[in-house]
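The following block was generated as part of the benchmark described in Methods. Ligand: copper (II) ion.
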Amino acid sequence: MSEKIELIVDGMGCEGCVAAVEKALKAVAGVRAVKVDLKTGRAEVEHEGAQLALLLQAIEKAGYEARPAQRMG
Ligand SMILES: [Cu+2]
C-alpha cells in the first residue's frame, strides 16, 4: 500500500520550479507519484517506503526549501 506525504516547498516561483521539484522528488527511491501545486506551495508525494529525509534532501538539492506539512503516518 502506498502512503502520502504532503510537503511545504518554499522558493518556487514558476512552472519551471514546479517541474524541477517534481523531477527531484520522482527520482527518490520509493516515490510513485508527485503532484506539486505552485499556488499553495505544496507537494503531494505518493510513495512506498520513501524516506522523508531523502525527499527533503532532493528538494534542497534542486534549490528549494521543504518541510513536512504533516507528520508521516
Ligand atoms: Cu521557477
